[in-house]
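FORM 7B: Structural annotation worksheet

SECTION A. Query
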Amino acid sequence: MVATQSQQPFDLLRELEQRSRSRAMGLPQQVEVRRTWSGIGFSVGGLNLVSDLDEVDEILDYPTMTRVPGAHNWVRGLANIRGTLLPILDLSGLIDDRVSQPNRSTRVLVVHEGDLSAGLVVDEVVGMRHFFDEDFTRELPDASDSMRGFLKGAYRQGDNLWAVFSMQKLRESDQFVQVASHS
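SECTION B. Predicted structure
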């Protein structure tokens, strides 16, 4: 009788184990974590561009501004943004000397370099873009040589190639520094 009593709890435990295994959920599916890079997507002259989130401080609707007499045609003017005068530069005109025509989708990207600030007119802002690191390529889209000087590679996303535009390179360019410091 002692043997039967000791087997009975053991059998009961075995039965509980079998029931719990049959009803147990498996471990969560192993998901591979892929590193991503995120930026602000925008277009200029038909090119899909993206800049690092840290390089763009603000996105504005196309503001009312005052023209600057004698300035380059790509210097759109000065805008009063919350009490601060901001030089507004046409990015396409600054780089390729092709001034864009503002429309409802035109936006201004605000960038800073030290005490200097400027607004860059772009054709459209498409919002945040996220890319997998392995989709980065040194391949560049068909762009002018002057535009290529500001590109650091691209991300392929489906059939689209998003060129990485370096606001840092732009802010360090002679044209940008001269205009931003004289405004």
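SECTION C. Observations
The chain is about 25% helix and 40% strand. The longest strand covers residues 36-44.

SECTION D. Sign-off
Analyst initials: ____
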